[in-house]
């Protein structure tokens, strides 16, 4: 059939550019050691930065949640799917990040992707004269949210504080929204949030912060980028995900109560979808206890030690380890094929690291995205570092024909 032939030919085009993506089926819980096709691998590719995804206290809370609330919510939040567990989680989240906001409320979403679509579409819908200012390296969900907002979007350069100042200064929009990742998901570096917030306050703009990779890992108490930078402002709209460092699933937006009520009333990705299973919200209460308590602090300290060990041990030629201080530690190789060859060589050695290619990253900047977790031991990170050094030396020798 002609329609199928066209799709097949598109897929062939992806294959020719080494852009076909494949899924591996994992047979064990998410953790540093996983089994794939009956083989045990050391995994450095999940976003389970604190090693909580299979934490016994959290899985026990999840079981308890299903006993208390059953398996599914049965309806959207505004019909009958909003349970006591969702409400309790939202109250806890508002208390957790509230000190950085003014008159804070929080709203739980099924995913971070949906939360980002919700924030940008709902904030933009409030005013026809809206302009969105989006960081060049923002996550796909923010890019899609800005598109769905059907309002002019200006992309400012990565960390381009001066360029943003100029764009905001020349904008005539009455409703300005600046949106940025806090920790860039494919680079691991931090956005200059204090400078961005100062600009937003100067120009009367919202600052939407996507802290998908900071919540739980940054800040003394794991409260994320707002705590790390000690930010306080009514202009902040904060999105944190709960399926990464928090180890469970979903996401939340925290902001001034009026912003949150606007989301409840206007945000289609909140209104027109079945509420997440209440048991997830119940389990997340235990995640928050761990993140905010002594165990969370110990896990963050251990993770920081692993990051230092990684940087100390690397001996790379031709490849570039980015200067990230977070759990995301990319090694830029450049070409798609070489990146996938490096990932395959590591896999042969029993080490699973993701190869990231365009469009997730800009052309010619394909990379290994190494992620470290508090669940890893120093010995496991030593094995990773040795393996990457070996694969790099071997591939560089082959490239040079020596
Ligand atoms: C920066 C960023 N924002 C948002 C998301 C989406 O979150 P979720 O996986 O909960 O949909 C992700 C990753 O998935 C991300 O890396």
Describe this structure in words.
Helix 5 runs parallel beside helix 6. By secondary structure, the chain is α/β, with parallel strands linked by helices. The chain has a seven-stranded mixed β-sheet, with helices on both faces. It has a four-stranded antiparallel β-sheet with strand order 10-11-14-13, covered by helices on one side. Strands 1-2-12 form a three-stranded mixed β-sheet. The chain is globular, with a radius of gyration of 22 Å. The protein has 15 helices and 14 strands. The protein has helices spanning 2-16, 56-69, 77-81, 84-97, 112-125, 140-148, 161-170, 193-203, 225-228, 257-266, 268-271, 278-292, 294-313, 336-348, 378-400; strands spanning 33-36, 39-43, 104-109, 130-135, 153-156, 175-181, 205-210, 236-241, 251-256, 320-321, 328-334, 351-352, 354-356, 366-371. It has two domains: 17-46 and 294-396, Aspartate Aminotransferase, domain 1, CATH 3.90.1150.10; 56-292, Type I PLP-dependent aspartate aminotransferase-like (Major domain) (Aspartate Aminotransferase, domain 2). The model has no long low-confidence stretch (mean pLDDT 97). Pyridoxal-5'-phosphate binds at residues 111-113, 116, 139, 141, 181, 185, 210, 212, 241, 243, 251.
């Amino acid at each position: 059939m002609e329609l199928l032939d066209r799709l097949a030919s598109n897929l062939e085009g992806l294959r020719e550019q080494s852009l076909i993506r494949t899924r591996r089926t994992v047979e064990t819980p998410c953790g540093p050691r996983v089994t794939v096709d009956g083989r045990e691998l050391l995994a450095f590719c999940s976003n389970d930065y604190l090693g909580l995804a299979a934490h016994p206290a959290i899985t026990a809370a999840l079981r308890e949640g299903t006993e208390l609330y059953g398996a599914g919510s049965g309806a959207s939040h505004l019909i009958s799917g909003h349970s006591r567990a969702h409400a309790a989680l939202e109250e806890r989240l508002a208390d957790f990040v509230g000190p950085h906001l003014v008159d804070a409320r929080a709203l739980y979403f099924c995913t971070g992707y949906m939360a980002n679509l919700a924030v940008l579409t709902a904030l933009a819908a409030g005013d026809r004269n809206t302009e969105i200012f989006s960081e060049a390296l923002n996550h796909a969900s923010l890019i899609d949210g800005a598109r769905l907002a059907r309002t002019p979007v200006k992309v400012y350069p990565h960390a381009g504080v001066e360029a943003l100042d100029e764009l905001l200064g020349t904008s005539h929009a009455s409703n300005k929204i600046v949106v940025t990742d806090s920790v860039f998901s494919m680079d691991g570096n931090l956005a200059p949030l204090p400078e961005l917030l100062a600009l937003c306050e100067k120009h009367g703009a919202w600052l939407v912060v996507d802290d998908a990779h900071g919540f739980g890992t940054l800040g003394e108490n794991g409260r994320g980028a707002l705590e790390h930078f000690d930010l306080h402002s009514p202009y902040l709209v904060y999105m944190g995900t709960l399926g990464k460092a928090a180890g469970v699933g979903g996401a939340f937006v925290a902001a001034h109560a009026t912003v949150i009520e606007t989301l409840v009333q206007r945000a289609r990705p909140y209104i027109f979808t079945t509420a997440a299973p209440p048991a997830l919200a119940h389990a997340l209460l235990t995640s928050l206890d761990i993140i905010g308590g002594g165990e969370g602090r110990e896990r963050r300290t251990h993770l920081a030690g692993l990051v230092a060990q990684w940087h100390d041990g690397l001996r790379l030629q031709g490849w570039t380890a980015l200067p990230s201080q977070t759990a995301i530690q990319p090694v830029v190789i450049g070409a798609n094929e070489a990146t996938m060859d490096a990932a395959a060589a590591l896999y042969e050695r029993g080490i699973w690291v993701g190869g990231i290619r365009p469009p997730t990253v800009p052309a010619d900047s394909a990379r290994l995205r190494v992620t470290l977790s508090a669940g890893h031991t120093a010995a496991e990170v030593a094995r990773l570092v040795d393996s990457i050094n070996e694969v790099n030396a071997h591939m560089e020798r082959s490239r040079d024909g020596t």
